[in-house]
Amino acid sequence: MQRLRFFALVLFALSAPLAALSPVPIHAQEQPQQSQPAEAKAEEQAEKPDLPQLVEQVEQATKEIESGLVTDVRLEHWQARLPEIRQRVLEIGQAAQEKVASRRTLLEALGPAPKDGIEPPAVEAQRSKLTSTVENLESRAKRADVLAAQSQQLLRTVSERSRARFAGKLTVRGPSPIDPRTWLKVGPQLQEALSRLANGLKAVVTKDANGQHATRVLVISAVIAAFAAGVAMLLRRWLRRRFLHKRDPAPSYVRCLWVAGLDTAFYLVVPAMVLGLVVAYMGSVGLLQGLLEPVVGTAAFSIAFFFTARGLTRAVLAVDAPRWRILPLTNSGAARLSRLLTLAAAIYAIDILLVRTGRAIDSGEALRAMHQLGFSILITLLLARLIRRDIWTDPESETQSRYDSLRGWLVVGVGVFGLMTVVSVLFGYIELSRFFATRTVLSVLLASLLLLLHALVREAITACFGAVRTGSPAAGDQMASMLQFWLGAALDIFVLGIGILLALPLWGLPWQELWTWIVSAAAGFTIGEIRISPLDLVLAVLVFAAILGITRALQRALDTRILSRTRLDIGVRDSLRTFTGYLGLVLAALIGLSTAGLDFSNLAIVAGALSVGIGFGLQAIVNNFVSGLILLFERPVKVGDWIVVGGHEGTVRRIRVRSTEIDTFDRSTVIVPNSDLISNAITNWTHGNRVCRVIVPVRVPYGSDTQHVHDLLLECAQQNPYVTSAPMPYVLFNNFGESALEFELRVYARDTDYYLDVLSDLHFAVDKALRKAGIAIPFPQRDLHIRTTGETTTRPRPGDGADHPGPALGRDAPEGDPD
Q: Which of 12, 158, 704, 709 has the fewest C-beta atoms under 10 angstroms from its C-beta?
């Protein structure tokens, strides 16, 4: 409430002096209010003209363009009007075609005309009327097509002439600043320009439009300016105290950008209020006439430009508050850069004022050439000073290496800029030099603003997703990171596209022609009988993404809110969730393709023609896909099942379209094609239920009490909490072994998850019980009989083997020979 009162007080204080001091101009007298139904009807008819009116407009455009005397203003008019005419003509043609189709449907309902020509009079009259209407509509549609083609040709002609005239203006050669004759003309032209300016201003300010002396108006304007400056300064001080708090010792980048924007806006309050009130007052009393109108407007624009550049510079660089500085610069570098940018803004503002005022008073070409030479040299020197290393050097900054790598390119860019601007004006091409200089500076400013906006949005996205990650699990964190990446990529593409669209008109492409290109590109192009429209493609992608997002949200809702509260098995829940995902994907694809304009009849023909080749070439993939569908519906294997397949054992983690993932007990993942799970035999420990049998073999020595062993084993089984009572555990006396009596303890575990635990616990329990009962677990025993003899074998000496061969070591050697 206090804010509203404050702003109301400010508005009243600003309006009071205007109401008291401003005289009532002549043109402010009351006008009788008239009813405007006829005008509204005329405007509505002008907004949507009919075909004859459009024909007249196209004929008028043709006469003006073919005459060769059309002015630049009329070229701009037709460049903006011809696309509207073409669009309206296309709408008329399309409407006529739709009406033709409806009338032909009525004719088909009447049936073919009788061969003898005799039919009821009412039917004959209706047929004749419909036939005549169809012919008229077809004629109208053809005329619309011809007129659309004619308007398109005229638009191309207008664009070509506009480009030719623009290039001609840039290549007009004037006096060269290095020509001595130009120097001799500068003095007289400057004196004449000042004389014209003084005479023009004197003629205006002698008396205003109401017959009042201009001195009183100027005094009132000065009072208004002083009063507005005082109020604006108070307002700015209050805004800065209320909204700008620079007490944070470590502000975030987003907050720095936000504070910089607010600081710039608050800095512009004073010049905006002063200039706005003074110009509004001078216009209200009729003083802005003749030469004073362009001079005052240009001066206001130049002052506004300077203060805007100055406000952005001081807010971004923050010389007095290093913590709030947006660019990574040292204090000395920020101070130097601030001074250079302020000087550049002042030079550019003065240049705007001098150039526009010179055009208003028609200053001489020699004076313009010398001015452009000085402006080009100053801007080139400033740019050369801006890329010096002492401004951007910051050893602690991560961007220092980037600047060092880009500095060479910046030096080349400044050199090309100076060469183009200075050399072209030296050869007399003044307009070309000025065009290149101004467009380069404006492009740099545009790029800077877009980069600031890009950084602000980037940091905002990072902050939002950082807050989301704080309370999200690992899966949500991964999804948030992916979404942040794609949003950042979309932002980069968007900013780049906006920059290109805004930079093209700066470099000479007219807005009308650019808009025509955008509309043509959005309308699409035709390849054969297929029409491809970028807008339809973008809309199709958005529809596909939206339906896919809704499907994912529905899957999450099924998992967390619906299926989790039911008693369904985890495999059934996973099958339902997967089937929902497949159904949503198919629906998203079909609706997206339909939105893109794809004809499904043609798609069916193409699919039928390629089905055989796809069946042979992708037979394995199709087999796995169909097997995956069988797994989802028949469910021989479910998510969470413990299976053994192909020598691999583990838990089913996920069933995909082509394959199934199995997590083994070694913490590895095995990818099994779905067709192997359908065509091969597998062991599923948890298919029907999760109860499993555990077998513990036990061996006791001969002579042990077998009944006592039986009771001990049953007691161990009954004491285990994971062993079921139904089916009951039991003991089998399997065999009289070679060195032991062989028993088996067979029990049933409540869940397969306890299989290894039950087996290990029973081993411990059986070993403890047998030790306590004094029963040892035997090990295999063998008797080894070694037969030896007293004979020895003499090995042959080296070299004697040929004459005295020894006994063979195989068949003839004694059995007990150790060799």
A: 12
Q: Residue 23 has what pLDDT?
A: 37
Q: Do 112 and 127 form a contact (C-beta atoms < 8 A)? A: no
Query: For 701-736, b where at least 16 C-beta lie within 10 A, e where not — what string?
Result: eeebeeeebbebbbebbeebebbeeeeebebeeeee
Round to whole Å and give the CA distance between 398 and 497: 27
Q: Which amino acid is present at 236?
A: R
CA 347 – CA 694 distance, rounded (Å) = 93
pLDDT, one tens digit per residue, over 187-229 is 888 888 888 888 877 776 665 444 456 667 777 877 888 888 8
For the whole prediction, is pTM greater than 0.85? no
One-character DSSP codes across 533-587:
-HHHHHHHHHHHHHHHHHHHHHHHHIIIIIGGGS---HHHHHHHHHHHHHHHHHH
DSSP E strands in 90-173: the ranges are none
Angle at Cα 213 formed by Cα 210 and Cα 300, nearest 5°? 85
Place of tokens 């880009």: 406
- 631 by Cβ neighbours in 10 Å (0-12 / 13-18 / 19+) ranks as buried
- Which of 649, 695, 658, 698 lies closest to 678 in space, CA to CA? 658
Beta bridge partners of 746: 695, 730
Contact yes or no for 748/729 (Cβ under 8 A): yes
What is the rounded distance in angstroms from the CA atom of residue 260 to the CA atom of residue 238?
A: 17
Of residues 207 and 503, the one with the higher pLDDT is 503
Taking the CA atoms of residue 235, residue 238, residue 239 and residue 243 in that order, the dihedral angle to the nearest 10 degrees is -170
pLDDT digits (tens, 9 = 90+) for 676-698: 888 888 888 888 788 899 999 99
Dist. CA 418–CA 422, nearest whole Å:
6
* Alpha helical stretches, state H, 596-695: 600-617, 619-634, 674-679
Which secondary structure element, helix H or strand E, spans residue 744, and what is its range? strand 741-749
Q: Strand, coil or helix: what is 236?
A: helix
- Helix or strand or coil: residue 598? coil
| In contact, 729 and 695? CB cutoff 8 Å | no
Backbone angles phi, psi at 556, to 5 degrees: -65, -40
